[in-house]
Amino acid sequence: MEAQAYRATCLESVAAHYDVVLISSVAPTWEQEFLADYEVADPADQAALSAAGRALAERHALAGVMTWTEWYLVPVARLARQLGLPTTAPETLQGCRNKHTSRSLFARHGVPSAASASVHTEHEAAAAARRIGFPVVLKPAAHAGSMGVIRVDTTDELPAAYAFAAQTAGRSVESTQVLVEEYLDGPEVSVECVTHQGQTTVVAVTRKTVGMPPYFEELAHLVDANDPLLATVAPAAVAALDALGVTDGVSHVEIRVVDGRPRLIEVNARIAGDMISHLVHLATGVDLARAAADIACGRTPDLTPTRHRAAAIRFIYPAYSGTLTARRVTQPTEGAERVCFQRQAGDKLLLPQDGGDLFTTRIGYLITTGPTATLAQIRAQEAYRNLDVQVAPVAHTAPAAREHAA
C-alpha cells in the first residue's frame, strides 16, 4: 500500500515509455499492469539482486537499470555496472548514502554545510554536542525519510535522543554510526535536480513545512514553477552534486536557508519521495520519473517546462495516538487533484511518544493545484477542512477536542 500510494505515478510514467521488468522482494500485486516481467529477490542482497538481474537479462534486452528506493541505490548501481549499463559509480552513491562521508566531501569542496561529528557512544555524542553547541541534531549516518532524526536542546535531553537515533542506526546494514550536527535554523527546501553525463539541470525547488518537534516530520510540500528562491539555492545544489561526484540520475538535494544563504543538509541520489516528483510534474510539466528512466538507458532527458503553475501536498496525521474509526471526504474542493488514504478504519495509530513512529501513523495525503503558490495552498487548507477524520484515543491519552482532520 505504501509503495502504491507514493510510487504508482512514477511506475506508470516509466511504463508509458518503456517495457518495464521488475526486481522486488515480493511478488508484484498492483504493479502487474505496468510490467512485462519480474523476478522475486531482495534488492538489498547484492548476490540475489545480481542473479535476478542476470535472469532478466537472459530473457530481455535490458537498456537500463534504475531505483527510487534509498536503500537500494548502491546495489542497483553495482548491478548496472555488472550488466554494462549506465550508472553513477557505486562508490559515489556510497558517499551519498553515508552522511558523514557527504559532510567531509562538502567541506573539502567548499560547499556550505553544517558542523558534524560521527559518534558511536552516548559519551561521544555528549562531547560532540558540547563542542558544536546546543541545539544539535542527532541522526543515523545512513538512513532516509527523517527516520531516527531528532533535535536536542539540552544536555539532559541527550541520553534519550541518542538512544532514539542509535536504535534506528542499528538497523542499517550500511552504517551504524550516529551523527551529531549543528542545528541549521531556517526554512527547509529541497532542490530537484537531473544530472546527465556530469551536467546538472535544476528543475524545481520544493518548500517544506516541517513539524512535530523534536522530530523533523514533513507535514506539507509546495512546488511553484515560478519560485524566486530557485536562483538562491540552485548553485549550492549543483555544487553539492559535483562535490559528491554524481554523474547521472535524478537527485533530491535537501537544504536549509540560514540568514538568506543555503546550507546543505544532504543529497539523496534518487527521485524524491512524498509525491514530490508528481508535484513537479503538475507544476512544471517536467517528468522526473521519465527523466530517470531515460538517463538509466543512456538517453538525454527532455527537461523543457511546459507548465508554470503550483502544486501542494498536505499530509494527514492524528492529533493523538489511537484507533482510526473514520476517514472520508465530506465535499469536493476546487483544485483538489487527489486525496489518498493509506490507513483503514480499525488501524492502530501510535505516535512516537506512545512507542510508535510518524511514518506508520500517517493517515494519508491530499494534493491541490493552482495558477499561483498562494492559491494552491489556500485550496490545500480548504481540502483539509473538507475531511472528516476521527480517531478513538488510546486509554492513557486524554482525548482532544474533535477535529475534522486530525
TrEMBL record:
Question: Per its UniProt record, what SMART domains does this chain match?
Answer: GARS_A
Concerning Pfam families, the annotation shows:
ATP-grasp_4 (PF13535), ATPgrasp_N (PF18130), LAL_C2 (PF18603)
The organism sits in which domain of life? Bacteria
Q: What residue stretches are annotated with the ATP-grasp domain?
A: 103-297
Single annotated GO MF: metal ion binding
Which keywords label this protein?
ATP-binding, Ligase, Nucleotide-binding
- The name of this protein is Carboxylase
